[in-house]
Every structure is written in C-alpha cells, then in structure tokens.
Amino acid sequence: MLGRTEQACITGVGNTEYRKKIDRPAEILAIEAVLAAAADAGIDPKQIDGIIPYPGHIGDDVIQAELGLNPRFRVMIDMGGCSAVSALRVAAMAVLSGAANHVLLFRGLKGSSGARKADRPSFLPGQPFRRHLEYVYGMNTPAQRYAVLCQRYKHEYGLERRTLGEIALAARTHANLNPNAQMHGRDLTMDDYLGGRLIADPYTLFDCCLETDGASAVIVSARNEARDIRILSVAEAQGASPDDTSNRDPFLDIGLTQAANQVWNDLGMGPQDMDAAMVYDCFTFEVLHQLEEAGFAKHGEGAALVADGGIRLGGKLPVNTHGGMLSEAHQAGLNHVVEAVRQLRGECGVRQVENARLVAVTGWGQLGDGSFAVLGGQNV
User: Fold this and answer.
1) Does residue 328 form part of some domain?
2) What is the distance between the alpha carbons of residues 155 and 171, in angstroms, rounded to a whole number?
C-alpha cells in the first residue's frame, strides 16, 4: 500500500479521439497520445525516463524507438483492467525513490477494427481450469464469466433491469457531452436499452463495454506544481480465490473490497468525501458492484444511489463523467485516470463537476482483482 505521496503527481495526460474505426495504425495512435501527454506536462518527450506498458497493447519498444527515449525504469503490470490504477502506485514509488523522474503509462490499440477481444490471447489466471471446466461448456467470454456475479447479486438482493439501464443511460448522457467519446452524438433511451439483444443473461447489448480504436497516456512525476494532480493513496488486492470467481465466500467479494478499505484507512477519509468516481465499467452491474464494495452504498443498496440521477452530473456521486468504457472508450481503464485529472483541474467544460477536489478511481481485472486510488487537486 502507498501512503500519502505529497509530491508524486500526475503531471500530464493525453489521448487521441476514440472511434469504432480509425485508419491510423495503433503505433501512431500511441505516439500521438504520448506526445499530447508530454506537452500537457510541459516536458520534452525525451525527459520520460520510466515506462509502464500494458500487456497485449503496443509495446514500449515502439515508443522508445520512435521518440528516442532511454528509460532507466521499466516494469509491466499484468492485472488486466486493474493495471492502470495499480500502475499509478508503482509510478509514484519510482519517482519518489529516484528510480525515474517522469514515468509514462500508456495504452494504444485497434480494439474495434483490429483483433477483437475473442481473438486476442487470454491472460486470465488458472488456464487449466478455464480450458477443462469452462471453455468446454461455452463459458469463454468476459460477459459470460461476469454475468454469474450479476446473477448471484440478483439472487441475494434483487435487481431490476431498469437499474442497470440507468447506469448505461448515465454513461451515454455523459458521453454526449464529450466530443472525443466513441458514442458521442448517439442517444440511448430506456426503451433502446430494454430492447437490446441478449449477450449473456442478464447482460444485453448496452450492458457491455465498447471495443475501441484509440490511445491514451498519463505521465507521473516527482513534481508539485499548480496543475499537477496529487496521487494521495493507491492500493490493490485480489479476491479470496484469485484464480476463480465461483468459489468465494462471500461470493461477491472482490479485490476492491480490501483495496478501498486500505485507502480509506490510509487517508482518514471515506466515500462521503469524494466529489466524483471513475469506476471500471466493463459491464453495467460492475459499476453497481464496485460502488458497493468501495463503500459508496451498503450491500444491496446500490440501486438507491443509482436511482433518480444519483450517478449523473449534478447527482449525489457523479460517476464516469467522460462516458466510461460503456460510452467513451475501452482503454483498459486508463481513460478513467485521464478524466479524473481533467475534472480535478476544472478542464471538462459542460461536463465539469462543480468544485471537484477529490476523485476516486477503481480498477477491475482478471477474475475480480481490484485497485483503488484517490486523486486530489492542489487545493486538498
């Protein structure tokens, strides 16, 4: 766990547009995002001396060669969608220890027009279990695997489809305020949501995140200037059975359950102190699930938080004000970090959360690994 890091800050963020199909190669997209982040940080790209790439996306060798980088710190974090938030922890440690001055986190892929999710290598743990006891019965996609968690929640607490629909609609509403979003300009109604084709019961089309062409980048530095966003605390953890989701007690326990508690205890803060949350929204239910596990709502009571615009801009807890993975882009969670930074700087225009000072960011990966961060502006 990382404690208070008064001078480990996110100093630069950048991204390309996010679309279903972009004609430029993934390598070019990644370079564009890195250059944008360096410009945002006010540094020459050659000052980047630490790199944390992401498995399965464009490698750091491309970035090093094209931008003439000579990194003295490099590490890869393989925790699926947890990796972006977990990388903030490692990057902060690197800059505070002197291992690097400016650490780059980046994503770049053609997730929609290139190889689709089903065609990419699986990095899930417990592959013998997957091959012999899941794949042979047709349980081989994230939607199928995570739908089991949603079904168990329905059994224990009850869950209306319209609650999941409101999560999807809130994301789309926010994306329509974000010109970079993949789904910008495409409205979604509750009737549209309820009429979506079945993917894996209870998930239908609009419960599922996007696949995206695009790139994003974040730079972490040992600096503390006016626009820099402080990494206040980060933690990561795994569920009780990290190689399986179906043998846990309690069944809905995930890594975030522990990670969020570590951060709250570290900071002496709680969910009530957050001005917004960027939640890893691979599926609609995972927004509800993670909000409860992180303490924003009691178990079984997340629907009340979601109801009546509670997670929309102007609501009790604005969630994924960029549109999230459901409506902005799938960037393995790094776009959530980018949005948190821009909210804390007050740069989001019509989707700005008023007086945002503290933003929570979650990561969800593999079979329920969890990461959790609280970021703060200079006024905290």
Assistant:
1) yes
2) 26
Put the strands of the sheet holding 8-15 in their side by side order: 73-74, 50-52, 102-110, 213-222, 8-15, 229-237, 369-376, 358-365, 276-278
Reduced to 3 states (helix: H, G, I; strand: E, B; else coil), residue 366 is coil
Query: Are the CB atoms for 232 and 1 separated by under 8 Å?
Result: no
Number of domains comprising the chain: 1
For the ranges 30-34, 60-64, 217-221, 361-365, the lowest mean pLDDT is seen at 60-64
Does residue 162 lie in a domain region?
no
Cβ density class 215-235: b for 16+ within 10 Å, e for less:
bbbbbbbbbeeebbbbbbbbb
Question: Mean pLDDT across the stretch 73-97?
Answer: 95
CA distance 330 to 23: 17
pLDDT above 60 for 53: yes
**Range(s) of the domain holding residue 218:** 8-115+211-376
- Is there a contact between 315 and 354 (Cβ–Cβ < 8 Å)? no
Look at residue 306 in the predicted model and tell me its pLDDT. 98
How does strand 198-200 pair with strand 229-237?
unpaired
pLDDT, position 272: 98
The CA-atom distances, in angstroms, between 354 and each of 278, 296, 315, 317, 358 are: 16, 19, 11, 12, 11
On whether residue 81 sits in a domain, the answer given is yes
Give the domain CATH number at 62. Answer: 3.40.47.10
CA 330 to chain centroid: 9
- Quick one: pLDDT band at residue 123, thresholds 50, 70, 90? low
Residue 131 lies in a domain: no
pLDDT of 1 above 50: no
Predicted model pTM: 0.94
